[in-house]
Each structure stands twice: as structure tokens, then as C-alpha cells.
Amino acid sequence: MAERGGQRKARCFSTPSPTAISLLEKTYPTDATTNVTSAIAQKLSRNLYLQPAHPLGILRALIESHFPTFTALSGWSPLVTPAKNFDDLGFPPDHPGRALSDSYYVNRELMLRTHTSAHEVEVFARGERRWLLSADVYRRDEIDASHYPVFHQMEGARVFPASAAGVAELEDNNARLSAHLAQSNIVIEDVPHLSTTNPAQPSHDAHHAGLVALNLKLSLNSLMLALFGGRTGAGEEPLRVRWIEAYFPFTSPSYEVEVFFHGKWLEILGCGVVQQRTLDVANVPNNVSWAFGLGLERIAMILFSIPDIRLFWSEDPRFLSQFTPGQITTFKPYSKYPSCYKDVSFWVPSEGLHDNDVFDLVRDVVGDLAEDVKLIDNFTHPKTNRTSRCYRINYRSMDRSLSNEETNSLHVDVVSRLKDVFRVEIR
Ligand code: DAH
Q1: Residues in the ligand 1 pocket, defined by CB under 6 Å
Q2: Keywords of this protein's UniProt record, alphabetized (predicted)?
Q3: Cβ of 265: how many Cβ atoms within 10 Å?
Q4: Which of 56, 116, 174, 385 sits in a 20 to 30 Å window from 310, CA-based?
Q5: pLDDT per position as a tens digit, 69-83
Q6: Number of domains in the chain
């Protein structure tokens, strides 16, 4: 999980504080950490990635079909313990992803998974040796065309025995994948499998770790070719894939993969050789595995030319009727409805206020009718030391024209909730 800078400690803001929260038809006790809003709670049952004619479902199926011998897992509950999401994967206790400002907590013991890696231990423990797992994941974030607090990831892994048989399986599979790639229109910018800054794990034989890393690279280059190859536009242009050294607490060596598409390098996924402790906790020692995790929205936005991430959640037939199972087609935008900008300025209370608290409150009050929210002014008065902020909210519906009365009333609601929940002083 990428680290994101925190500001102040975020707070929960359900008003009035209920003692229980209902999620996926079950009730859970709340506590001081609870920060799942009702806007988020409503998303838990949508399962967009399971709809066969939805771009996310089409992409998921396409990736699954590229790995026909892998078990495809889905439908796993998004409610996980912080131990599963973080500790079992070696995240340090002070990792910023754990903060209330960055993740959604049901209570101290339960959170919404922030990545599909949260299920690695469970899946390895089932004895799965080649698997893919698709799921919705949740992160508190800003509001704009490419950020949404719910998105979808796919995790994949392949396990090899840490033995001579494992080496033979790797050598054989690597030879086959290399032969296939050698005939393909792809140019790869590689990094060494291992380096001093991206080392094999102490418990691994370096030769074996190198073979696993090569297998990972070949498998993912071949996936990139299946997804993006032949779509680079200009005739015979080869697909360009770039490997970059990375760091994740749960893999070593670790990499990121980027693809050059429509004139830009796009970050597609993170991956690496799974930390041995994950396989040990899963009770499958004496094995070596690679794993990767990718975000479905980012890839689908590129492949289907979908300009705004909110569209994935649209129930408008003008969106949904454009897609066919098994096919990547170009989305034809229908006319955009007018936007309406409204500002809210206030004095921040002395205990501070995190941007993500403001964003979540806006989403909770107006749902997807906020296209984006931007902090446009932030100053601290030199004498009083009080901080004033101004946020600009862009109200726009994806599927209808909002009347002036409606936007006014949405904005009045946002302002009054800001006052009630955070005790801000409106200017
Ligand atoms: N879980 C990571 C994220 O959400 C992505 C990832 C990186 C998954 C490396 C992996 C991996 O399986 O090996 O950003």
C-alpha cells in the first residue's frame, strides 16, 4: 500500500453517535474509532466486479481467463481484522495506512480491507497454489475524477515447492513463457531480479529466488500483453513495459510494473516474492511464492476510455448498456450535465480537522453528486493563530441536470453538517 501523508488525526463523525452499525445485514458495536459512513456502508453489497457486463466484471474475467489454471476466488467479506490487513503482512505499527484518517474502521477490532493482500494468509492456508482473488477495497481519499473511496483489486499468487522439483517446474515454465514472449511485439525495460536494495530473503537460496522473480516477471509481462498488446494504436508500435524496484512490507524482492499507453507511463501493479513469514503463518513452509496486486479501475478506465471513476457506480442505462461480456469496447460519453461550484469557508476548530474528514462528510451528505472537492484556501491568522479554510465543491450529477434549488439545498446540508459534526465556525 502506498504511503499517504497524514495531516491531523482524523475523527469519527457519525451524529448522533450510535452504539451500533449495520453492515451486510449484521450489526457491530461502534467505538471511538468508528468512521464508516453510511455512504460507504451502502457500497458493501454492490459487487460491481461480479457483474458480467460491467467494465470491472469484464476486466476481471479477462484476467482470470489469462490464468486458466488458477483458482478464481471472489465474494469474500470486506470486513477484516487489522491483524489480517496489516500485522500478518509485516506492516510496522506506525504505518500511515493504519491511521483513522486513511482507513475505515467499524471498530477497533474490525476494518474494511484496504487491499486484497489482506487475504493472502487465508488463501495460502487453504493450500491454494495458483490463485486469483478479486474484491472491493476501501481507502479514505480525496474526491475527484480518479479517486473514489471504494475500488477493486485483484491479487494473484503462484506457489512453488522449495525443492529440486520446484526448481525444475520453474525452469520448465520460464522456458515456455520466454519463448512465447520472444515472439511477441513487446519491449521490456527490466531491472535486475535481485540487488542490494532489493534483496532475496535470508531464508531463500538466491538462485531459487531469482527463478521465482523471473517467473513472476514473465507471467506479468504476458498478462500486460494480453491486456494492452495490440491496443497501442499506431500500427505496429510494440507494447512497452517497465519494471521498477519497489518496497512492500510483505515481499522481497519487490517491483512495480508500468505500461506506456496513450503517451504516458501508467503504474499498473505491485508485486514481488512473498515474505516467508506469510507462508509460515499460513502453515505452508517449504514453499516459495510470488504475488501481485492490481487495481481494476485504473486499468478499466484506460482500456474502456472511461473518463470519471464515478461512472463505474452509475446505474444509468446509457452507461451500463454500452458493455458486453468478454469485450473491451470504447465508452462513448453522453453529454455532461452542467456543474455548479459552491464554496464553504470556515474557521477550523482548535483540535484540527483532516481533509479526508471533510471529503467523507461531503460524500455522506450528497453521495456521488459531488464531482470533486478542492481545498482552495488555507491561511492562519497571524494574531489569533486561528486557521481558516475554504473548500470548493463541484456539484454535478452523472445522469441528470440538478436544479438550483437542489444544489442550494445540498450545500446548505453540507454546511450545517460541518457545523454540527466538527464544530467549525462558518465565515
Ligand atoms: N497490496 C498492494 C497495494 O494495495 C499491492 C501489492 C504489492 C500486492 C505487492 C501484492 C504484492 O501481492 O506482492 O498497494
Answers
A1: 1-2, 115, 117, 155, 248, 251, 270-272, 291-293
A2: Aminoacyl-tRNA synthetase, ATP-binding, Ligase, Mitochondrion, Nucleotide-binding, Protein biosynthesis, Transit peptide
A3: 13
A4: 116
A5: 999 999 999 999 999
A6: 2
